Amino acid sequence: MSDEPESISAARGVTPDSLLHTGGNDHPSAEDLVLASGRDLTPENLRWAERRLAREGRSAMEKTLP
Known about the structure:
Layout (H helix, E strand, L loop, with lengths): L5 H6 L18 H7 L6 H14 L2 H6 L2
């Protein structure tokens, strides 16, 4: 976590720590997994992510974002 107040971080164009999350309480979507893996949002990559989420569930995202 940053020691800077959120107002300073926001002024620098940095996302405040309070807004950063990996979706710990959410169910990741195929789009989330594609973006987290650094891939482009293409139909092929979305199908890959859908298959991986169906097979691994939430752990697919956790393995991508340790």
